[in-house]
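INFO worker-7 received task bundle
INFO bundle size: 2
INFO processing item 0
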Amino acid sequence: MQKSNGINVKTAILLGALFCAFILVLGFSLSKTAGAPANKDCLLPKVVGSCRAAIPRFYYNSNSGKCEEFTYGGCDGNANNFQTEEECKKACHAACLYLTAGYPANEGCLLPMKVGPCRAAWPSYYYNSKSEKCEEFTYGGCDANANNFQTEEECKKACL
């Protein structure tokens, strides 16, 4: 196992992830009390809308942990809809991503497996940072985190 200044690298990653989670929770609480929009908007699903325009936009995909392009219809969207990739990243990417440079580029790969409270039974994959492998689990269908992939290949591409 690699060590950096006497600290186990996995321990450093875990501490960084815990710090990030604390900052994000604190940030959500502060943004609610200040009346500013919370980044929880980034967890909303992609909504194309009911109109028929073809407007290129970006949304934060909480499964991949990345801002991705989609075609917006022009109406009936939600707050997870950005004109540029840069706007999306600024609003949705945790600054903590950069604390783990040299480790999985997708900060979601460091999150624990999350089945969620719903009762669906969808085969999914997550990156297990202890075994350093993508492993299968049964996803409940809602309230996923960014460490949730439809296929083992998607998991490997994002996390290995």
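INFO item 0 finished
INFO processing item 1
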Amino acid sequence: KAAAAVAAVDDAATRDLRRILRLE
């Protein structure tokens, strides 16, 4: 379960980074 939570957080982080890169 912990690994799944970490993976979910990583996915969210990558999405945010992609949005920021697109804005820039």
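INFO item 1 finished
INFO post-check item 1: The first helix runs from residue 2 to 23.
INFO post-check item 1: The mean pLDDT is 93.
INFO worker-7 idle
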